[in-house]
Amino acid sequence: MPRTETARAPAVWLGAMLALAPPALLVCWQGVTADESHGGPASQAASQSSSSQGASHPSSAPASQSAENRGHLTQLPQLSKVSPDFPDFERLHQALRLLQAGHYAEADRLAAALAADANHPMPRAWLVAAQARQYLRQFPAAAEAYKSFLAASDTPVGREYVQRQLSLCEAAAEPPAGDSSLPSLRLTAQDRKELAVVEANEVVQTSEHFIVTARNAKLAKLIDQEAESALKRVCGLILGGQEYPHRVRIHVWVDRKDYLTHASGALNWSGGSFTLTRDAGVVNRRIDLAQLDGKKALSLATIDRATPHELCHLVVAEFFGDAPCPLFLSEALAMLAEPQLDNDRLLLAGTALAGKGKIPLADLLIVEAGRIDKPDLFYAESYSFLLYLRQRMGEKALAAMIENVKNGSPLAEALQRALHSPEDPDFLKLLQAAWEKYAIDQAQYIRALRSPATKPAG
Ligand SMILES: [Zn+2]
Fold it and tell me: What is the pTM of this model?
């Protein structure tokens, strides 16, 4: 099913930003005061922001979330000492006051001018500008401000938080047309109607990497385009961006019954499947899908999810060859190949990891096919964990780690090496704790996005 709430509910986004603002600002300030030689009054400003900002936006966060934020604040270490003679400090403080008072455009103007000042550039002012732009829903501009801060500051303190804010801004920014949004969202009602027509004859659409057969010429073309886009993502994830040198046959059968009749080995509940076989030295690469859903309408799941998911499984299977690929990795990669983040899965994972019903990391890594106790949670946690790894190590290092696993490195060892972690018998426990924190934060954020109580203040 398509999930469309991300980046498409402006008021809710703004509310969520407000709800998260106090800890975000504090962590950022903490980071810059530790990084720069001056900034003492910044610690005062930060302390003031933690109490006054909550008061100035009493309706911005649900009670439970405010409590969580306060809890978060108390965990922050003391801010570092500063010298009082920083020439532009008063103006920076003024920008912060403007931000707290809800004068976002003014706060942004002043902070950006301070940050980019030709004589005394003040990189930390980018954080005020970034926050102001978040409130203004100017997500691409906010992302730029966070990037400017990160480029000018090498402190590790608070950096992870700023990077997460940057990711959220990038996710909230309108995706470029034809790029990362769900393909079905680009279809009009008329498109969907036309794509659901079952034509008398099969048509074949051929491109560089695919030969698509369907009973609808327009659908064959669309599946071909989506498969090409998905292949680019998959190559980035697994092949380190290398070109895929093969061609895959895609059969789009009319409906589930037709699909189950023709797709060899397809499971009853599945919406798509892949096969990789060798026949007299010839490798056959094939994906089977269905055109219509149970209501005889165009299957959006086929376009949005099954096509990239099965394609990724196929590429992973061929890449690993005879080497075993951990199930969590194979499924997580297939989910990551889908064109849009799946917040439902992230919410499920974060909620479970905050409570008692979770699958511990050590167990998640060794789950085998056919032995999944809690399938939904297994998928959700696998997805969340791989997203965490990608965020922490970057796509290139993740691809190198996957290659190590393929070459026989035990998973824990490959993870340890890729994360540059020292030898430690508790490595997996520490990794679990760090991932949990990330996943719980992410779920809290998604919850705030969806909460009707998070209305923008002012
Ligand atoms: Zn799968």
Answer: 0.63
State the distance from the centre of ligand 1 to the C-alpha of 305, rounded, in angstroms: 10
Residue 323 CA: distances (Å) to CA of 319, 374, 393: 9, 26, 24
Structure tokens, 234: 């998959």
Expressed in angstroms and rounded, the spacing between residue 356 Cα and the centre of ligand 1 is: 26
CA distance 168 to 332: 20
Q: Which pLDDT tens digit goes with each residue over 12-66?
A: 332 333 333 333 333 233 333 222 333 322 232 233 333 333 223 322 333 333 3
For 17, 65, 374, 384, 435, the CA distances from 348, given in Å and listed in that order, are 21, 18, 12, 9, 14
What's the 332 CA to ligand 1 centre distance in angstroms? 8
Q: What is the pLDDT of residue 446?
A: 83
Interaxial angle between packed helices 217-238 and 327-336, expressed in degrees from 0 to 180 and rounded to the nearest 10: 130
> What's the 363 CA to ligand 1 centre distance in angstroms?
19
Contacts of 363 (CB under 8 A, 6+ apart): none
Task: Give the residue among 30, 11, 111 at the shortest CA–CA distance from 77.
Answer: 30
Contact 45, 25 (CB under 8 A): no
How many angstroms is it from 333 CA to the middle of ligand 1?
9
Parallel, antiparallel or unpaired: strands 272-279 and 282-290: antiparallel
> In Å, what is the CA distance from 452 to each residue of 15, 62, 248?
9, 9, 45
Residue list, CB under 5 A from ion ligand 1: 331, 334
- Rounded Cα–Cα distance for residues 458 and 456 (Å): 7
Could you tell me the two tokens for 145?
Answer: 């401000």
Nearest to 153 by CA among 116, 134, 126, 129: 126
Q: What are phi and psi of 339, to 5 degrees?
A: -75, -10
**In order of start, what are the domains of the chain with their CATH numbers?**
10-172 (no CATH), 184-322 (3.40.30), 330-450 (no CATH)
Report CA(313)–ligand 1 centroid distance (Å).
Answer: 7
Residue 305 carries which DSSP code? Answer: I
Question: pLDDT (tens digit, 9 = 90+) per residue, 181-204?
Answer: 789 999 999 999 999 999 999 999
- Rounded mean pLDDT, 149-170: 77
401, 393 Cβ separation under 8 angstroms: yes
* Interval between CA 191 and ligand 1 midpoint (Å): 28
Distance (Å, whole) CA 135 – CA 21: 9
Q: Which two tokens stand for residue 171?
A: 């996710």
